[in-house]
Amino acid sequence: MHFTCTTPLYYANAAPHMGSAYPTIAVDCLTRYYRLLGYQVLMVTGTDEHGEKIATAALKQGLDPQTHCDQIAAEFQRLWQVLNIKYDRFIRTNDPRHAPVVQEFFQRVWARGDIYRAAYEGLYCVDCEEYKDPKDLIQDLCPIHRKPVFLRQEENYFFALSKYQTALEEHFARHPDFVQPVIRFNEVKGWLKEGLRDFSISRAAVRWGIPLPPDPEQTIYVWFDALLGYLTALLAPDDEPCLKNALAGGWPAVHVVGKDILRFHAVYWPAMLLSAGLPLPERIFGHGYLTKDGLKMGKSLGNVLDPFALVEEFGADAVRYYFLKEIEFGQDGDFVRTRFIHTLNADLANDLGNLLNRTLGLLRKNCNNQIPTVTIPLTDPLRQQTEAMTQQTAQAYEGLHFPRACESALEIARFGNGYIDQRAPWKLFKEGHRVEAEAVLYAVLEAVRIAAVLLAPVIPELSGRIWSQLGFAPAAYAQLTWATTEWGGLPSGQTVAQAVPIFLRLEQETLA
Ligand SMILES: [Zn+2]
User: Fold this and answer.
1) What pLDDT, on the 0 to 100 scale, is given for residue 510?
2) Distance 382 CA to ligand 1 centre (A)
């Protein structure tokens, strides 16, 4: 079974920001989950490197577009490294293997009779690389970029999108989960209802791009080119670059994209694939925007959240945890520093970390650091809770409900804290009820071990630290599978490590 999941191919006009880190963390988490399940996983990310805006951004820095793109792509890769993103493919759309795939695709659509040449005049947003419908403008500005649009007239090649109106309607009706969440699917259906209009897929004035096969004076429209990056990315390293090999490499994929580029992915891209006679993506997930302290982030506002700085201050796991746990994926989400610190302290340092720490302390004092030999009955409430929450976490991951996945795993730790308080094993030891006391310690440590597996897709390093404190070798954690969530995996007699806090409490700055 394969599972291919893509992040957007980030536009290489500027360095990565938190808005690009966020969906990448989500896709990394999802693909790590499917890896645990034993799927053959491909996580695809990369950069979209063609188009006018990139040529202009390079020029502004006094660079040629290639050098500029090399630098930006390297920055993205560096960010993925510090965020502990385990991607399999990083596709750059100016990879020499990409152009033949795009041109072959273009030829198929051309042979289908879906491309024609026409003059076009319209209002163009360079930042969107798209002609805008005058009725969508807000005070004459692009509704997404809030920047002026320009009247542009070109002799272009067009894709006959309108021919695919019915086919898309039918596909949507047959696949009620094609776009998620539901509010985003409704948006997409709304666009369809307005009626699809053909769109231009070439640019006469742009040199930085892939030449159009029938007319090399023009380049292929950056979106038509970039979407195909999802296919080129699937080529194995020594594959001949062609559509057949790309499709065999793990298509169809699940796409995760921001809501601002949903139209390209949920309408244009499926229609292009239908025209080329190729299978459509499996699912498209549209996530929301990030704000900081309730405000839209922007250079001009001076409130940009730098992901590098955040990771440097708090570590990758903390950043991953906050954005997955605190934001319902699909909705807009807010970053507030005090809330960030509070969430991490409450969940990771207190609920999870303290439970492990105090239990290991009791084990040292009473059991010589060895996991006791006991059997926990099926009816044990902590065992039951752990088993129920394991199922709930799996369901949450599958639906991309990351907050619920974290919450379910955390619930085990919260329940465990109540369980140990109530049973007071320190007292049981003193009173000579050794068997009962050892059973409590075993149950708690086993529950923590399982919670760590459930959280491994979100906080891979921290979960690894939990496993090593429980006495497992690094190789055991490296080979983790979902099957290890089964109760009873903590070996009796195993010697645990010295108890050290797995997550240090963060200091909340005193607020003026
Ligand atoms: Zn725009």
Assistant:
1) 52
2) 53
